[in-house]
Amino acid sequence: MYENEHGTQSMIEIPVIQNPNAPVWQAPQVKAIRRRTRKVWVGSIPVGGDAPISVQTMTKTKTSDIDGTVRQIDEAAEAGCDIVRITVNDKEAADAMAELVRRSSLPIVADIHFNHVFALAAIKAGVAKVRINPGNIGSIDRIHEVLGAAKDRGIPIRIGVNSGSLEEDILEKHGYPTSEALFESAMRHAQICEDFGFRDVIISVKSTDVRLMIEAYRTLAARTDYPLHLGVTEAGTTKVGTIKSAVGIGTLLAEGIGDTIRVSLTDEPYKEVEVGKEILRSLGLASRNVEIIACPTCGRLEVDLFKITNELEERLQGVKKPVKIALLGCVVNGPGEASEADIGIAAGKGVGILYRKGQVVRRLKEEEIIDAVLEEVMNFVPEQRPAE
Ligand code: SF4
Questions:
Q1: Distance from the alpha carbon of residue 334 to the mean position of ligand 1, in angstroms
Q2: Closest ligand 1 atom, CA of 302?
Q3: Rounded CA gap, 69 and 58, in Å?
Q4: Cα separation of 212 and 215, whole Å?
Q5: Which residue's CA lies nearest to atom 5 of ligand 1?
Q6: Which residues are within 8 A (CB) of 377 and not within 5 positions of it... i.e. 6 or more apart?
Q7: How far is the CA of 302 from the centre of ligand 1 (A)?
Q8: Where are the domains of the chain?
Q9: Which CATH architecture has domain 291-379?
Q10: At what angle do helices 140-153 and 179-195 cross, to 10 degrees?
Q11: For residues 241-277, b (16+ Cβ closer than 10 Å) or e, as one string?
């Protein structure tokens, strides 16, 4: 029996149903340990090892439309993109690569399917990575020519396996695209690189089927140390693609799997970046950018938090600093949450208490909060990674 506002109530008995045959379910760790992978460099961006998880997109213009392609790159960079991929599917595209490399604000990955001549042209033009499956290039001489050129330039190769384009013999062996089939295909291409002594390899095993891609990446993660590029391929429109990508990529990242991500949407490249960054933020992995946490507000709110949050978000656009800001509207949860962030505000009646790394810095008037937080962000020194 227990009492509530409706008087004395009886406890409801919940029967315990035990099934001795049910498999034992083990809760995964709340915060998974990041899988350790070998580190490669895509231009100035490290991928794998202890590097922050990078966000990629792909331009959607004709590559030979240099101005249009550069515009999409700039928009993606503005949204926080780290690496951009560009298709090199014909001679005009190959010819455009040198100028695109020169004008791009981001490291470029050349996306090539079979043509080793385009791969060599892109490498010569100065791209930072090539996405190509060595087993699709043709003769061993051609393969060695491409791997040799990439090695000479010190650039990595991404092996991109897709459930929709598996090799016929692998499909025949497995019956249909399975996680093992994707793994086998990836290993076939990776073995070619390893045999040549080329080890700067990143792998992706994408599918439109979210469960399949999760299983395939888990298989790779369990058996290799290659850095992994995560993605749900042809995810769809902005709404559906965002959800599918958040589920697929997010599940893996939450398990500590994944080194770089690309959200595929039938939308502008910068939209893909925004969704990718949001997936990282939701898991506390967006370590290259400012992260703002704000309370949803309620009747206890004592300052205009909407205005403060929106203005800070706007004025911090494009600031690349791994800093976490917490803005809390009252003293109920404020001090605790604000002191857990790098910079925090716990508001009171028309005032805000400014926190830096858990310590109270000073008391501010409401109208001083925005400028004070901006100043803190500019002076914030991120933790330095130890020298390698
Ligand atoms: S921090 Fe205060 S104002 Fe914000 S939601 Fe919580 S109780 Fe409400």
A1: 7
A2: 3
A3: 10
A4: 5
A5: 297
A6: 290, 316, 319, 321, 323, 325, 343
A7: 9
A8: 40-282, 291-379
A9: 2-Layer Sandwich (3.30)
A10: 70
A11: bbebbbbbbbbbbbbebbbbbbbbbebbbbbbbbbbb
- Mutational test site, ligand 1, from 302, 308, 328, 339, max ligand atoms within 8 Å of CB: 328
Has this prediction a pTM greater than 0.70?
Answer: yes
Is residue 322 within 8 A of residue 287, CB to CB? The reply is yes
For the domain spanning 40-282, the CATH number is 3.20.20.20
Q: What is the DSSP string of 218-272?
A: HHHHHH----BEE-BTT--SHHHHHHHHHHHHHHHHHTT--SEEE---SS-HHHH
Tell me if domain 40-282 and domain 291-379 are identical in fold.
no
> Confidence band (pLDDT; 50, 70, 90) for 387?
very low
Tokens representing 66 are 């240099």
Q: Which atom of ligand 1 is nearest to 333's Cα? A: 1
Over residues 7-48, the pLDDT tens digits come to 555 555 555 556 666 666 655 555 567 888 999 999 988 899
